[in-house]
Structures are given as structure tokens and as C-alpha cells.
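User: I'm preparing a small set of examples for a lab meeting where we compare how different chains pack in three dimensions. I only have the primary sequence for this one, and I'd like the structure in C-alpha cell form so I can line it up with the others. Please keep the answer compact; I'll paste it straight into my notes.
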Amino acid sequence: QVQLVESGGGLVQAGGSLRLSCATSGNIGSINVMGWHRQAPGKPRELVATITSGGSTNYGASVKGRFAISRDNAKNTVYLQMNSLKPEDTAVYYCNVAGGWYNAWGQGTQVTVSS
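Assistant: Understood. Below is the C-alpha cell output for the 115-residue chain.
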């Protein structure tokens, strides 16, 4: 069973930075897509960024140029570097890893950006 544990969320002032981490356990295979999604109160969950096992990345329009996703395949861990944070980035951030036989989600980590 694939399990994910996020860390790194917290409270930061606008313009600041945070780095989220998501550690995986279980067999995730060599071909998969790792990603981050977020959900603000009263809003649907939205894509933040994804990265394939080959290193191809995709970003949501609202974070492009400010956030960077990366992964360490040796550690089966995915990261999200968030820079130039804005109050509208406030949300619960969820890690997601999908492969041939699974689609796993983490429990979420709160990111709050104060103005």
C-alpha cells in the first residue's frame, strides 16, 4: 500500500517562501507522476504542479514562475518550493502520487500566507 506524508507547511508573510516535502512509502514503481494540489476553503481542489518520473513538469497558471516542483527518485520524495507567496496561496496542500496500480493522496498540510 502506498502511503504519503507531507511536511513543511506553516504560516508565512506575503512575499516569503516555504518548501513542502512529501515522503512516500510502499512500492510506487519506477513510472509514476508525483504532484501537488491545493484546496482553499469553499473552493474546489486545484492542480498546483506535477512531475513525471522522467522529470517533465506541469504547473497551474496561478503558480507558474513562483513555484518549483522537484523529486528525488532515490528517496521517493517530491518537493514543492514556493516563492513570492501571496495571500491567495493560502490552502491545504495535498501530495499525490499516481502509478499503474494506485492513486495515493497525503493527508494535507496547511499553508497560510498573511498579508
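A couple of notes for your slides: The chain is about 0% helix and 55% strand. The chain has a mean pLDDT of 96.

User: Perfect, thanks.
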